[in-house]
Amino acid sequence: QQLGGGGKDAFGHSVPDILQLHTETEVATVEAENFSFDSDFIPSYVAVNRPLLIKGGAMHLEAMSWSDYRHLLADLGNEVVQAAPVPYSKNMGLSGGTEAPLAELLSSPKVWRSEEPTAGVLEPSAAPSYIFDASVLRRRRDLVKRATVLGTAYMERHMSHVRVPQFAVGFRGAGAPMHTHHAALNASFAGKKRWFLCPPEVASWSLDPVSGWMDREHFQ
Predict the structure, then answer these.
(1) Are 164 and 148 spatial neighbours (Cβ–Cβ below 8 Å)?
(2) What is the distance between the alpha carbons of residues 23 and 50, in angstroms, rounded to a whole number?
């Protein structure tokens, strides 16, 4: 965003202010009940590219019911979605991608992993596939409202473009590799999600499955 004549943006941030925020080594964390999207979200975080974890921020969404597989499969089990070790594999000419009904993929050994490794149980050596689909909620617009964190009035007031939510399911070791993009809001409905955040000066794109990337020397 552009700075005004006084060297500050629309929210009062100067370049030194923003650069100082980017030296933070801990991700800001707040409880949902103590956080205001109206007063805090855009000026304190989005405008300065500052990551934020909102604990309990998705609890009010109807999509929280998807933490129970019975509800997830009832809503989306028959929908064909994409899965691959690296999202968008087909578009990038990478191997290993597949498309199938969600119910079928959730029971596939290419996708499913136990929460923790089981002693004596041999797992597939290939990187697990990550269910990541950008089109299913375009087809199922009736479900979009269930997974939308920000209200329509808020988005119309503050945002020029908001894409239809993407849908993802990943078990242990699955996920997206290192990549970059503009501001994004992610809601987690079940399990745990581990993030790796890098400062802008070392941002990069990778086509390596995240499970293999984590084993490499430069990550260690």
Answers:
(1) no
(2) 10
Sequence letter at residue 205: W
pTM: predicted TM-score of the whole model, two decimal places: 0.87
Q: Which of 74-78, 160-164, 165-169 has the lowest mean pLDDT?
A: 160-164
Distance CA 101, CA 220 (A): 37
Residue 1 pLDDT exceeds 80: no
What order of strands is seen across the sheet that includes strand 80-84? 98-101, 80-84, 130-133, 167-169
> What whole-number distance in Å separates Cα of residue 152 and Cα of residue 65?
21
Half-sphere exposure of 53 (CA within 13 A, CB side): 11
User: Counting beta carbons within 10 angstroms of the beta carbon of residue 29, is it exposed (0 to 12), middle (13 to 18) or buried (19 or more)?
Assistant: exposed
Tokens matching residue 97: 């991608």
Res. 189: pLDDT tops 70: yes
pLDDT number for residue 212: 78
Neighbours of 18 (CB within 10 A): 16
